[in-house]
Structure prediction request, 715 residues.
Amino acid sequence: PAGPVNRGVFRQVGVTAQKTMRLLPASGKKATQKVVVGDQDGVITCFGIKKGEAVPVFKTLPGQKISRLELGGALNTPQEKIFVATGSEVRGFTKRGKQFLSFETNLTESIKAMYISGADLFLCASYIYNHYCDCKDQHYYLSGDKISDVLCLPVDKVNCITPVLACQDRVLRVLQGSDLLYEAEVPGPPTVLALNNGNGGGSGEEIVYGTSDGKLGLIQITGSKPIPKWEIGNEKKRGGILCIDSFDILGDGVKELLVGRDDGMLEIYNFESADDPGLRYDHALSESIASVQGGCVGKDGYDEILASTYSGWLTGLTTEPVHREGGSGEELKLSQEMQSKISSLRNELEHLQIKVLQEREKYQQSSQSNTAVSSVPAFNVNDKFTLNKDDASYSLILEVQTAIDNVLVQSDVPIDLLDVDKNSAVVSFSSCDSEPNSNFLLATYRCQANTTRLELKVRSIEGQYGTLQAYVTPRIQPKTCQVHQYQIKPLSLHQRTHSIDHDRPMNTLTLKGQFSFAEIHSWVVFCLPEVPEKAPAGESITFYFENTFLGTQLESTYRKGEGCFKSDNISTISILKDVLSKEATKRKINLNISYDINEESVRHTLKLIHPKLEYQQLLAKKVHLIDALRELQVHEGNVDFLLPKYRSILEEADQLLEEYKRQPAHLERLYGMITDLFIDKFKFKGTNVKTKVPLLLEILDGCDQDGLIAFFEAA
Prediction:
């Protein structure tokens, strides 16, 4: 069957959060479905679609922003009651828009995630889960890390209430009452959960999850343990997953998986067999997709996919043929339909232009009066700053509800700006002061008209920590700007992992002193990414990390009065020692620091770095030869006389240049890491070897692994 085609935009509401748009069940056998959507102005809008136009059903008054919208009703009946989470309150509306419930929960924070099953209501704030039945408190659980989504396995299939929490520390937590039943590890921080097939599959135990780094998987949540079924990586390096739905859009009797990502990709996966999903279609929208639903919306008999994007646009992809077959009479009818639509759009546009002029005049008059009050227009920015494991870089994604004019990026620590294929903005760099504690980076991105989303990539240097700031200026009058700050942490290239290799040669740093569990936890939060801000429950905690650039690892275990950090990389231990002692000194806490250095670990780390070093040196050499080889090609007209290795450089020239451009300072960074390793090795022995660094750089240029190891051991 032909894939769904873009039918266009139905209407725009306010800025929408994740999972805030649903399709109400059809009331008759052939009737189309109504759309209901909640936005950050607190407005619930319900509408149907007739002849491509939105027909309103109801619209509520503005209020607190809506963070989730779910449908509910008695079990095994049409789920047509509308529930919204707004602040710490849950409200219920009928499909006609009449409010029948206002439930003020006992949560002190705003609701972040919600799920409804019959009379059971499952709510999550940042770390807290609550289960209510008929609005009465039943169970409570405090999670070890932030909760991003919640659902419950279908009670009619599994015969018990089994809530599942998606948590930032790369686990799904399965609960029983107020207790943790078990944890299921997933390959990335999960952002969204959905029941497989919409009903949990045959067993009712199957959950599809999507992660913030763009991975998708299916896991079976049995009564005793998790069983992973399939997993799809993110080879195409697309955005994180925000929403999932199951719907048979291809009409083959099997429900496809509909996936919406934060880079605007809408994907349809179909199943050749139960455990083998394949990407069948994809469609790019210009904004992140907050919600996706499959159903029959525009015309009887034609299914479609409806997506709502961050700034509130609702877009449909339909199976209805765009070019109708038939005689000239039908074509004439179609053109008349189109003409009336075009004229109504023209009228609407003229009306809006007049309104804009009137408002502008009104603003000019009020700004010139003696009692003028300057009003800064408010605008929403959706931002995401995450570490990518594949290339050890940070992605900064900025999405604004209106077009971006420019973004100024400023950093007080040395960072590299990397190339992003999807980025069409023009970047210009400003020179920075060489004074200490001043700017290391000042770059301006000027965006093309109608750009609402900008993606930047930066790579930091471990040991150098500070703040990256983005000044976002949209195309609105009067000119206004929002500043967003992002912390570059001392061990910024480390990422949480489930386990480490305990057989590696490890260096150990031990701290002892009069500090509380909360204090040492706050120091670890300061040093490392992906650590929950709240100190975990219990007396001690262990976290595992992997260095995404080198593949070295770190184990941190700490409790009140004691901390133990183990790594196969001496430089990691050195950075921790410097930063932790500085933090303790700030709080006037005396630390007793001891360390155990394993000489073998230096050789081990050099062996991890060397293949990367060799590859980058070879790439640099090839790139430097390209111009000379191209000149030869022009002069000689033919390159058959060249050695095969030089011919292959010419053939691959474009890819080589592209790769070199994408990783501008990669070789310098590797040189820097080896130099730090050399200095840190001898620092722990109390020797200053900075005078020997020029000799080390000479050996590095020679790219001889054995010579390098020998130099480290002989110095």
The chain has ten helices and 43 strands. The first helix runs from residue 155 to 158. The domain at 16-250 is CATH 2.130.10.10 (Methylamine Dehydrogenase; Chain H). The CA atoms of residues 605 and 643 lie 36 Å apart.
